[in-house]
Amino acid sequence: MTTDKAMQPLIVPRLQYENHQWSPSTDYISRSERIRETGPYRSALVPAIAERQFSIPQEVAADLEESARALGEFDSYADIKLGTKGNALGPMSSILLRTESTSSSQIENLTVGAKQLSLQVLGEGHGGNAAIVAGNVKAMESALVFANTLDEQHLLSMHKALLSEQYGFEQYAGKLRTTLVWVGGSQHGPRNAKYVAPQYQYLHGYLTDLFAFLHRDDMPVIFQCAIAHAQFETIHPFVDGNGRVGRALIHAVLRNKGLTRKSTPLLSAALLTDTERYFDALTQYRAGDARAIVERLNFACRFAQRTGTQLIDNLCEELDDAKRALHGVRSDSAAWTVLPVLIEQPTINVEYLTKRLGLAPVTARRALNTLVDHKVASHTMGGRRNEVWEHKGIIAALNNYSAELRRA
């Protein structure tokens, strides 16, 4: 670690390790590979942080204040522009949650376009990545409920929402792992892995310590989020979905501590711009220096404010264009009621509107036809060849945002 004051480390307890022996259990590997994968390995022992006192370098503390202010300003702006009436997420602001879920999934190389995800939510998708990302949306929604009570039970509920949509992993949904997991190396054993998570027998104790840490109120919230996220990823309590659940955990903590009240800032979008630095920061945390992961989250907060504000403005511009196109339509027309839903769900059908808005089917269809007549929406066919209506401008705005992240 450097001794340069400008890069003063942020000390956290280093990982300890314990030694084990590994022998592949499957018969479907070659003799040479079996020899290579048989032998000693080390798994992590995760230090406790519940009562740990931290010394935050002055310049990092200043950045934390700036980042908290950025999130607060974004939360207020999103509330003003998107509104929060109707449900916990607001009639339009749930698109932020969906965009954040998509970015978090992209970090795990799960990519899906705005239209494909929207069709999946509508029941018109083809499954695959869209189904997995739709599961992440549900996990993020669960995270905001989890924010009220940070405990293991609600964490498992979040994970269940995520993995229930992932084909082949349904049996693991909402359950702590009962096997060893590792990152990198061979699927047949942990000997050449980049990181071997702790033995599963320790998980309950480690999570109890983590939640005790989260119930503290004696440190900056964003710092607490960064430490908790890195600690969670180090514990790695699930067979799959640890990264996505760990990033959703950040939002649960932000909501629990009151730093965000109305919106879902696009933090994963920021992390997606440089995944190598993000994963390196987690490695540095395990080596005893949390500075890099705190700085990554600081950057993410400011990035989320800047690009999230622009995305909101782009979506609202699409909505304003649609309002101008509907000029002359009676104010009591159901088309006006349907219009904000297109931000939340840019592909819709009659069934969705009857459930979402309580409209009669004939009223919903009449509203959709009005939107088509005024060139606000287009009539097309869904993935299952059923009728759907879409707002191409909103879909383009969301896809452009994702494309800009990839360029960044």
What portion of residues is helical?
55-70%
Strand order of the largest sheet: 5-7-6
Strand content: 5-15%
Backbone structural class: mainly alpha
Averaged pLDDT: 88
Tell me the number of strands: 7
The shape is globular
In sequence order, what are the helices and strands, one letter per element? EHEHHHHHEEHHHHHHHHEHHEEH
- What is the number of helical segments per DSSP (H or I, 4+ residues)? 17
Sheet bearing the most strands, described? Answer: 3 strands, antiparallel
Radius of gyration: 23 Å
Poorly predicted runs are 1-5, 84-92
Distance between the termini: 29 Å
Quick synopsis:
It contains 17 helices and seven strands. The protein is mainly alpha-helical.
Q: Strands, helices and their partners?
A:
Elements: E1 16-22, H1 31-37, E2 39-45, H2 58-82, H3 94-107, H4 114-122, H5 129-146, H6 152-163, E3 182-183, E4 195-196, H7 203-214, H8 221-235, H9 242-256, H10 267-272, H11 275-286, H12 291-325, H13 334-338, H14 341-344, E5 347-348, H15 350-357, H16 361-373, E6 378-381, E7 387-390, H17 392-407
Antiparallel strand pairs: 1-2, 3-4, 5-7, 6-7
Structure characterization notes:
The chain has 17 helices and seven strands. It is mainly alpha-helical and 408 residues long. Strands 5-7-6 form a three-stranded antiparallel β-sheet. A two-stranded antiparallel ribbon has the order 1-2. α3 packs across α5, α4 packs across α5 and α15 crosses α16. The radius of gyration is 23 Å and the shape is globular. The chain starts with 15 loop residues before the first strand and ends with a helix.
